[in-house]
Each structure stands twice: as C-alpha cells, then as structure tokens.
Amino acid sequence: MTASELFGALARIAGLLFIVTSMMAMGMSLTMIQILQPLKNARLVALALLSNFVLVPGVSVNPWDIARSLIFLMLILLAIGLLFKSHSPESADHWQPVTNRISGLAILILLVVGLGLNISNILSLIGTGGIVALLPFIVGSLLILLPTAKRMGARSQAASPQPVPASD
C-alpha cells in the first residue's frame, strides 16, 4: 500500500466517522419538536431547497444518490441518537459531548489529509486564475445561503423550549 492509498483510506474513514458521530451527537442534543418545527415553514423550506439545489448547484448529481446518502447515512443515525436520548437522557447527555469532540477531530483529520493529498493540485492552480475564478462563486454562494441559514436558525431558536425561571 502506497502512502497516497493509506492517506486516502484515512480520509475515507475520517469522513465516515465525521458523518456518524455528528449525526449521533445531533440526535442526542435535539428533540423531534426542535427538528420538525423549522420544517413547518413551507416558504423557508422552499427557499432552502431552492438556494441549495437550484441557485448554488455546484455539480450535477443524481437525486437518488443524494436521497440514499441522506436516508442511510444521516437520517438513520439522527434517529438512533434521538431514540438513545429518549430512552436514556442521562447517558445521552454524557455521550453527546464525546461524540461531538470525535466529530470535530474527524473533520479536522479529513481536512488536513484532504489538503495534503491534494496539495499539488491546489498549488498548480496558482497563477492559472482558477482561484480568482472561484471567488465570485464562493461569494455568491455565501450571499445566497447565509440569509436562508440565518432565518432557519432564528426560527429554530424561537421554537426551542425556553427555561422557566425559578420562583423564589
């Protein structure tokens, strides 16, 4: 096995570990109400879908490939985290920060290894104008996606249960 193959395998493992741990951690930190509440705003959901799949498509993909990935790698893991929390809240409260830390470490490994594996491609872009050509796409994507994400986050926070102040 070459170093490139070894680091490629490490990147794939780190990517899978990130998906598993981040979805489990999210499931252990949310309730079904917190997940479903933002989805009740049809306009916001339509805007999110429009901005992610129409205005900023990035690449052309098969919709079933995306759905299969979401169903098998994300929604099932999210559901497992939710079930774990509903049946054992104390254990979920203990394991959620642990899985969150593992998730953060996995994405860091993925980023570092991915950059390392692709450094020659990245360096070869210098002087070609490729990086400059990407800037309008990145800025445009952020201008389209950030307002939608902000609205969804504000809506989600408004739907979250607020602690009741203790009476003296």
TL;DR?
With 168 residues, the chain is mainly alpha-helical. The chain has 6 helices and no strands.
Explain the layout of strands and helices.
Elements: H1 3-29, H2 32-36, H3 42-55, H4 63-87, H5 89-125, H6 130-159
Helix pairs in contact: 1-4, 1-5, 3-6, 4-5
Descriptive account of the structure:
The chain is mostly helical. The chain has one domain. The chain has helices at residues 3-29, 32-36, 42-55, 63-87, 89-125, 130-159. It is globular, with a radius of gyration of 20 Å. The termini are far apart. The mean pLDDT is 84.
Task: Report mean pLDDT, rounded to a whole number.
Answer: 84
Number of strand elements: 0
Characterize the overall form: globular
- Give helix and strand order, one letter per element, not per position: HHHHHH
Number of domains: 1
Q: Tell me about the biggest sheet? A: none
**What's the total helix number?**
6
Low-confidence stretches: none
Distance between the termini: 67 Å
Structural class: mainly alpha
Query: What amount of the residues lies in strands?
Result: under 5%
Helical content band = over 70%
Subunit organisation of the chains: single chain
Using the CA coordinates, give the radius of gyration.
20 Å
